[in-house]
Structures are given as C-alpha cells and as structure tokens.
Amino acid sequence: MTDRRVVARPAGLRPAWLVAGVLSVLVAMLLGLAFGSARLPPASVAVEIFNQLPWVRVDSGLSDREVAILIKLRLPRVVLGLLVGAMLALAGAAYQGAFRNPLADPHLLGVAAGAGLGVTAVIVLGAGAATELPVGVPMAAFAGAVIAVGLTWLLGAAGSRDRSPAALILAGVAVSAFLSAAQTYLLQRHVESLQQVYSWLLGRLSTAGWHDVLVILPYVVVTGVIVLAQRRELDVLTVGDAEAASLGLHPQRSRYLLIIAASLGTAAAVSVSGLIGFVGIIVPHTIRLLTGPSYRSLLPLSVLFGAAFLTLTDLLARTVAGDAEIPIGVVTAFLGAPFFVLVMRTMKSMPT
Amino acid sequence: MTAAISVRGLTVRLDGNLIVDGVDLDVAEGEWVTVIGPNGAGKSTALRAIGGLLPHDGEIHWHGTPIARLHRRERAKAIATVMQSPVVPPAMGVYDYVLLGRTPYIPPLGRESASDLAVVDEVLAALDLEPFAGRRLDTLSGGERQRVFLARALTQGAGILLLDEPTSALDIGHQQEVLELVDRLRAERGLTVLATMHDLSTAGEYADRMILLAGGRVVASGTPAEVLTEANLAEHYRVRVRVIDGEHGPLVVAVRGNPNATV
User: Fold this and answer.
1) Which residue in the set A9, A247, A350 is minimally distant from B76, CB to CB?
2) CA–CA separation, B151 vs A249, rounded Å?
C-alpha cells in the first residue's frame, strides 16, 4: 500500500518527539551531574560516564575525589530523579485517562497521601527490620495508595451523579486530608520516629543512594510495561465506556489495571522520594499541548519528559538557594499550582 | 432463512426497574427495521442490549449464533452501534476518530495495518468526509459529526448497523441527508439496519418494517402503514394524530385535542 494517497496520518508517537524526549533526558542528566555545590565540567562528566562503562577506558581529567562525588553521590541521585519523575508523570497521565479527568494526579487523588501513611505506619509501628527490606516500604506504600484511590473513587462517585471532574478531585482532597490526619496522629503517638519520618516526607532525593534505585527499579519496570501496553486502550476509552465496549474492549478491566499500575508506580516513587506534587499534572498537560491528545504519544513522552523535568527540578532545588537545599516538593508546588489553575481554565474546552 | 438478528424474550432491568419486558423481533439481512415508541418505552435500552452492551435475559442470535457466545472483538466486527449522542473526545482528529472503528481488528499491543488505513480512507471517501479528515471532531457541525459517527461505525466492517436516534440532533435537511446516506450504504454494502427514531413520518419513510414499543413491550409491528395508525398512536403516545398517505409512507401530524376523540 505504498501508493496510498495520504488523507491524514493516524496519531501516534512521532520520531522527532521521541528523539527530543531522549535528548532532553540526556541533557538533564548531564546538567544534574555537572552542577551542584561542587561544579564539574560537563564535558569531563560525559567522558567519565563513558569511562565507567566496563569495556571503555578514557581519561576524563577528573580527580579521584570528583569521580567519587560524581559516581557515589550525584549519579544515584540523578538516576533516582529520572525514575521518580518518569513514574509520577506516567501515573498522572494514566489516571487522567482511566478517570477521564484532566485534573487527576497522584497527589490530588490522595494516592500519595495514602502511600505516605503506609510508609509512616511501617516506620513507626514497624518494625525497624521491615524498613530495611526492599519490599517492606514500597509494599506498605502500595497498600496505602490502592486504599486511597479506592476511597477517592467511591466518594467521588457517591458524591456526584454527573461524575464531574471536580467531584473526583474534591473527594481526593477529602481523602488526602483524612489520611494526612491519620498520619499526624500516628506520628504524635510515636514522637521518637518524627525525625526519620520528616526527613523522608520532605523528599529524600538528597540522601539517595544506589540502594534506593534498586528498591524501586522493579516497580518502575512493571508499572511502565503495564501502562504503556494500555496506550491504545486509553485512546479508545476517551469516547466513553459504552462506545469502547461496542468496539470490543473491556473498559472496566482496562481501568482497574491502569489504576492499580499507576498506584504501584506512585507508591514506589513516594516510598523513596517522599511527597513531590504536581509532576503528574505539569508534564502530561504540557505534552498534550505540544503533540495532541493521543495516549500513544502522551504516555511514552511522559516517561521521558517526566524524567527530565524532575531531574532539572532537583537541580534547581539544590542550587537556587546557594548551599541550603530546598525540598524538591516545594519547587514542584511553586511551578504546579499556577499550572493547575491554567488546566482548570481550559477544562471547558476539553470536557472529558 | 436465518435472520441477521433474531431476538426472543429480551428482558432488561436497570437498577431493579423492568425497562424491556419480553421483546421478540427479527431483522432479515438487508432489511431496515425501526423501533418507535414514546419516551421511556425502552427503545434505546433494547437497542443497547441487542448490541451486547447491557446485561439482559432472553436470547439474541446473530445469523443463528448466540451473541453471548461471541468474543467482544468478534461481536464488534459483526455489529456496529452509533449511540444517541456519542462522546466527542476533546481535541481528537476526525481521522483518528474514524480509525477507532478498526479497534477490533488491531491486535492487542499491535498497531493499525495498511489495510486498516485503507478501510478508513475508503469510508471517508464514500461519505465525502475527506475534506474533514485533518480537522478536529469538536470543531464540526452537528450534521458533519453525525456523518463522522456513521463513518466510525462503517469502518468496523460489520454487517449490522444499530442506530440510536441517528437524527435527533439535526434539522430536517440534515436528517434527510443522513438517512439517505444510510439507505444508500445499506443498498451498496448489503447492511442490515435496526434503528430507533422519534420522528414518526421520517421513520416510516425509510423503514421496511416498524416495531412500536410501549412500556417495554411490543404493542404493534408490521409495515409502516400497519403500525402508524391513528388508533395505535392515540393509544400509546396519548395524542390525537392525523395520518395522511404520503409518497413514501404514512405522514403523521399531531393535532390538539382529546386523544380519544376521533379526528
């Protein structure tokens, strides 16, 4: 069918955008590795990263101390930022599609608060031993996340017959408040853990090590595979459940799968990085504006640009105020809150 | 001859309320059957159940095969439904919307093939929609959108077209345009059409046979002339009507006054 007269091209991931996404990840990585309290020349950083590959030997010109900063401190932090950013952006896009709600986001749905409560419960009640295991904290976060999203969904459906986007978000706010209150109560009863929990709550990218990367990697892979595999289903779901069913899909099954996968990804991100908001709103909506609404391009690009975005935000958080590091969640909230208003203003033209 | 669709004892309850109560109907291959009835008669519910979209009791056969036995994707290749007011996805292009009709043919995790795109191109050309292919669906007028909805259903390649109030949002000019289009496609592609409609005269002009539903039951069926009688309509629509012989079937006009008085 090479002589097909092109009427229009189907939506999908354009190679140019894929290249742009990969480049943005590489640039963000390089900047994140080069800048900070100790400044390293970006070119040397790039050479040193090559040097670390097992079959390459090149001299980057960095001192041993600089190499140690690069590989032991900065690289795990940058890699963790990439993974967490990719997960939060992908989860946001997946929730938006599954709930057909442009405001859906891991934080606004209460998912992050649920995950936070799960982690707090493990740290506080727990069994110090459980926190050392690679499954303890993420699994507690996952359980909290799934319970939270379930509560939000039920409350949102019960509170509004027309299933308006606002009802779901209001339910998410209520669930967030309730779970945060439960978390505060737990902390008050266990003041001895306050320090440990708070350092985690404010975002732990600052203390990231390779251990954290290995803890969340499996969850990131599972979530990524499940959500990306549903990209075409998400496009069909935009026409509504009845139409999607008449086209041969199982809308409710796809929805459950997506929500559980997105909650798993959120939980993994939260369990290593604490509460970082708005990434799931900022990144997917910016991509929609640039490349259109199709989830076939939105989901893979959310992974790439989400990773780049959080890495750059982290760079901002640790450089903008000199030596004093700002919690990364504060930076994303500064960027995200105005963006949220922007999305709300355009919602009339994008009824979901 | 086996009917394209054969329905026996179709019963649907929604939230515990009996909406469709033991409906029997047959639609022969290539036939156009229109279901009429007052608001709340269960027309749309019956149509959605026949499309396999609602849990129901009773039997629905498609060319002799129980549709309950068909896989969802197989059913989507056999029966295409155009809903009463389909959701218009924000910012989606016409081409992508029409391509959604190929969903049951695209393997899970796969992508659309050249033949899928060829079907879309052919349908867009047949419905004079090529100039709109690059437009956003939400920028089209009501009549243009209805043609796009129809195009989406046609790309499913199904022999049976279920149309729920296909013209309710259109002015009379565009109503006729859409129905003429359906009739032409029916002839060209050997489609079987089962529709619900409110406008009785228009319904009668296009249907081979009609079924009058009231309270979830079939209260009259037959040719338009047999169903669209002053007595039938007075009884079930509670309105005084006058039925006039038209060129293509009875023309129904509502007249003020007591429905039980003769006109």
Assistant:
1) A247
2) 19
Q: Is B64 on the interface with A (CB under 8 A)?
A: no
Contact A336, A283 (CB under 8 A): no
Put simply, whether B75 touches A (Cβ < 8 Å) is yes
Query: What's the average model confidence in pLDDT over B236-261?
Result: 88
- Domain B5-255 in CATH: superfamily? P-loop containing nucleotide triphosphate hydrolases (3.40.50.300)
Give the whole-angstrom CA distance, residue A227 versus residue A142.
Answer: 16
Structure tokens given for B218 = 């079939």
Spell out which residues of chain A touch residue B99, defining contact as CB-CB under 8 Å.
10
Asked whether residue A153 is domain-assigned, the answer is yes
What domain range includes position A179? Answer: 78-347
DSSP code at position A7:
S
Interface test with A, best of B15, B117, B164 (most A CBs within 10 A): B117
CA distance A99 to A110: 14
- The tokens 């043609």 sit on which residue? B147
Counting the structural domains of chain A, the total is: 1
Give domain status of residue A335, yes or no.
yes
pTM attached to this predicted model: 0.89
A183-239 confidence digits (pLDDT tens): 889 888 888 777 777 766 665 676 678 888 888 899 999 999 999 999 999 999 999
**Domain-located, residue A333:** yes
Domain assignment present for residue A53? The answer is no
User: Which CATH number covers residue A94?
Assistant: 1.10.3470.10
Domain ranges of chain B: 5-255
ipTM for this prediction: 0.89
How distant is the Cα of B198 from the closest Cα of chain A, in angstroms? Answer: 22
Q: Does B53 touch chain A (CB under 8 A)?
A: yes
